[in-house]
Amino acid sequence: MSKSTLTTYLLWLIGGWFGMHHFYLGRDRQAFVWWCTWGGFCLGWVRDLWRIPSYVDAANETYEYMDWLTSQLRNDRKPQFSLSRWIGQLVFATFCGYLVLCAIPETLNPNIVTLLQFVLVPFSVAVAVYIVGNIGDQTGSFKYSLLGAYGALLILREPTAIASVVVASSILFQTTKKYKRQIRPQRSCCKRFTKLAFGGLIVMCLWSSFLLYNATVTTSDGETVYLHEAINHFFESPFWKELKNVVYELIQTGWKIGWKNMYNEFVEALDPQGETNAYKVCIMQSNVISDFKSKFNLIKTLFIFCLQ
C-alpha cells in the first residue's frame, strides 16, 4: 500500500514528536528514537519538514529511488559520510548512556554499582549507535559498535567517560556501514508495535529507576531525601490513610445506592450553593448572641447586687 505525502505531513504535525509519521512510513527505528528524545530534541522534528518527501519515496520504493539504490549496490559503493546521521548517533548514544548511568541505584553496594556501570553503559551506547546507524537504507555491524564502546572503556577505565565511549563506538561503526541488500520484509502493525512497545517499556523502566532511587527532594528543613523514601512516607501519612478510607467508603456507597445517587450525594456534600456553610454561620451567630445576652444579664445582676 503506497504512502501518502499529505498523510505523512499530517502525522508529522499531530504526533511528529513521538515519531508517528516514521511509524506510518515503516521507519520503526527512527520512530523509536523520536519517541525517546521528543523528536530528536525538537531539532530532528523540524528537519523532517523538508526530508519527508524523500522518506515517502523510499517507503513507496519509487522508480527513481530504486534506480538510484540499484546503481549504488551494483557499483558496490558505501554510503557517504552523513554529518547529520553521525551527530544523531552521538546525541542518542550519549542520551542512552547517561540514562543507564543515572538509572543504576546509588544505594546498592559500590562494587555492584561499578560492575553494572562497566557492563551496561557501553552496551547501551553500542545499541544506540547501531539503532541510528541502521535507520533507512543503511546498515552496519553491531559487533564493531560494541568493540568500540568496550575498547574505549577498557582504555579509559572510567565508565562515566561516556563521550569518549560514544565517539569510539560510532567511529568503528562508520567503517562497516553499507547499503541494505535485502528487501524490506512486510511485517504486521501488531508485531511492529509490540517491538516498539517493548523498547519503550525498557526506557520507561530506566526513567522509573532513576526517579525512584536516585532522584531527591528537599524538605522545608533543608534535608535531602530520596524520592522513593518520600513516597513511602506519603503512603504512611495520616492524609493518605484518610483519603484511602474515604475512597473505599465512596465505592461501597456507590455499590449500595447506585453510582448516580452517589454522585448526587457527592455534589450535595460539596455544598456548591453554600447553604450548609451559611446554616453553620447562622447557628454560630445565634450562639454568640445568646452567649452575649447571658453574660450581659450576669453582669447586670452583679451590678444591681453591688448597688444594694
Query: How many β-strand stretches?
Result: 4
Shape: flat
Global structural class = mainly alpha
Helix content estimate: over 70%
Strand content: under 5%
Question: How would you write the strand order of the largest sheet?
Answer: 1-2
Q: Runs with pLDDT <50, length 5+?
A: none
| Average pLDDT rating | 84
With helices defined by DSSP (H or I, 4 residues minimum), what is the helix count? 14
Radius of gyration: 33 Å
Can you characterise this structure?
- The chain has helices spanning 5-15, 20-24, 28-41, 43-60, 63-74, 83-103, 110-133, 142-156, 162-174, 189-214, 227-235, 238-257, 259-270, 275-307, and strands at 138-139, 178-179, 216-218, 224-226.
- Strand 3 and strand 4 form a beta hairpin.
- It is 76% helix and 3% strand.
- By secondary structure, the chain is mainly alpha-helical.
- The strands form two sheets. A two-stranded antiparallel ribbon has the order 1-2.
- It is built from 14 helices and four strands.
- The longest helix has 33 residues, at 275-307.
Topology overview:
Blueprint: H1 5-15, H2 20-24, H3 28-41, H4 43-60, H5 63-74, H6 83-103, H7 110-133, E1 138-139, H8 142-156, H9 162-174, E2 178-179, H10 189-214, E3 216-218, E4 224-226, H11 227-235, H12 238-257, H13 259-270, H14 275-307
Helix pairs in contact: 1-4, 3-4, 3-10, 6-7, 6-9, 6-10, 7-8, 7-9, 8-9, 12-13
